[in-house]
């Protein structure tokens, strides 16, 4: 393949991508779009079976400094996330990276009165930071298999004498052809457009993310939130936290609001966290009616966020979800995993687990097709087609159930008295009373 037929040359990373593509065998040419947990897990599982692939990720490769910054905590479940980690052969290294946040839970009402506490004794879902998980997966792959800085602009299907293929356009000269394209490219997946016109819709919730990096200065707040997860709920809003390493905590403030464009309409879009806090704390429709200690938790996190990142704007985003049961007409050479397939809110902690479960089961299908071709010959795409269809049918069944559970959890958490409902949920699960 020629890099260009004009006088301009391709950027080095594009030349590398095309060179890597040329090194792939005639079949299968597999592209994984997205270098999040889903894409990296799938790539690693294929790598272990020596099946060639390329991962294309729009972001630049993260630096050590970026990976050292606070990130959200993810709890991995035995049948999904942990099963994928085990099959990747990473469980021992993974275990060494857990423990920053315990599995303990604390639930309070809007005034900070504790309604439920536990030490996570019935849970078997270890917590790991998103950055640690991503780094673990990425560094376990050969560097040439991940093409950083490649943002997909479009994907098109075309028919060739050999069958159908998908061409990927990353905005530079030349399109790259593949036999199989897996969309692991998140909420606003461009690969999804090859399969369905369904798009995510606003879930009715705004999320503000802040961090406290010097929690020892506030022992009463450290006592309030505990060593694991904390939730202060009421009036259809919530202030939640996860403990992090190095005396830090990440604070998530969820506001139930009908206005998708709330950050702009409320004048918060151009504010720092410190500048925005008074507007949120003084508004009766937001956190004004929460108790002093919960409001202080939010205020301290805003002040420290701005102190640690001077000039950075408030991190406030609307949450989106795909309709429950989103499906598409099966195609033999394109499929979706993770948020691209079944975006949902974080109320059940299923996002990363479903994504890695998708990767595990899709890898089994690809490995099966690859082995069939090695034994019997023929086309990889033809061998994969029935296995891919079975994967998608199973995926829809699994994710539809979890999406409904996630929706139900959101209704429980963000009702008028979400704290009472959430505490009763835990007490029923643990068979105790508080």
From TrEMBL:
This is FAD-binding domain-containing protein. Keywords: FAD, Flavoprotein, Monooxygenase, Oxidoreductase. Residues 30-196, 331-367 form the FAD-binding domain. PANTHER family: FAD DEPENDENT OXIDOREDUCTASE DOMAIN-CONTAINING PROTEIN (PTHR46972:SF1), MONOOXYGENASE ASQM-RELATED (PTHR46972). It comes from Aspergillus keveii. The lineage of its organism: Eukaryota, Fungi, Dikarya, Ascomycota, Pezizomycotina. It holds the Pfam family FAD_binding_3. Signal peptide: none annotated. The keyword Ubl conjugation does not apply. Gene3D superfamilies: FAD/NAD(P)-binding domain. InterPro entries: FAD-bd (IPR002938), FAD/NAD-bd_sf (IPR036188).
């Amino acid at each position: 393949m020629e890099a260009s037929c004009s006088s301009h040359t391709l950027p080095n990373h594009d030349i590398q991508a095309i060179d890597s593509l040329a090194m792939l065998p005639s079949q299968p040419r597999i592209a994984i779009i997205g270098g999040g947990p889903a894409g990296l897990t799938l790539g690693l599982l294929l790598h272990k079976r020596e099946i060639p692939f390329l991962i294309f990720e729009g972001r630049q490769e993260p630096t050590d400094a970026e990976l050292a910054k606070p990130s959200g905590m993810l709890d991995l479940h035995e049948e999904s996330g942990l099963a994928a980690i085990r099959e990747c052969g990473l469980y021992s290294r993974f275990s060494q990276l857990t423990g920053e946040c315990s599995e303990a839970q604390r639930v309070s009402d809007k005034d900070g009165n504790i309604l439920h506490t536990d030490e996570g004794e019935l849970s078997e879902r270890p917590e790991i930071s998103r950055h640690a998980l991503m780094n673990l997966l990425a560094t376990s792959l050969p560097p040439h298999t991940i093409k950083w800085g490649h943002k997909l602009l479009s994907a098109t299907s075309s028919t060739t004498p050999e069958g159908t293929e998908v061409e990927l356009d990353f905005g530079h000269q030349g399109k790259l052809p593949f036999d199989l394209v897996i969309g692991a490219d998140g909420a606003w997946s461009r690969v999804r457009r090859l399969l369905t016109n369904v798009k995510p819709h606003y879930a009715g919730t705004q999320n503000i993310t802040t961090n406290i990096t010097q929690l020892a200065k506030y022992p009463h707040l450290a006592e309030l939130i505990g060593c694991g997860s904390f939730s202060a709920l009421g009036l259809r809003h919530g202030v939640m936290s996860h403990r992090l390493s190095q005396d830090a905590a990440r604070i998530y403030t969820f506001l139930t609001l009908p206005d998708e464009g709330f950050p702009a309409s409320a004048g918060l879009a151009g504010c720092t966290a410190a500048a925005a806090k008074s507007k949120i704390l003084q508004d009766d429709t937001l956190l004004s009616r929460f108790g002093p200690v919960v409001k202080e938790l939010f205020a301290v996190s805003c002040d420290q966020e701005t102190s640690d990142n001077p000039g950075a704007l408030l991190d406030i985003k609307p949450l989106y979800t795909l309709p429950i049961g989103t499906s598409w007409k099966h195609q033999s050479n394109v499929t979706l995993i993770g948020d691209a397939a079944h975006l949902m809110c974080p109320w059940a902690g299923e996002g990363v687990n479903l994504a890695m479960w998708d990767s595990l089961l899709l890898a089994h299908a690809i490995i099966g097709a690859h082995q069939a071709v090695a034994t019997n010959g023929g086309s990889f795409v033809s061998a994969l087609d029935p296995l891919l269809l079975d994967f998608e049918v199973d995926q829809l069944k699994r994710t539809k159930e979890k999406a409904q559970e996630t929706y139900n959890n959101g209704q429980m958490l963000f009702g008028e008295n979400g704290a009472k409902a959430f505490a009763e949920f835990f007490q029923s699960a643990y068979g105790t009373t508080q």
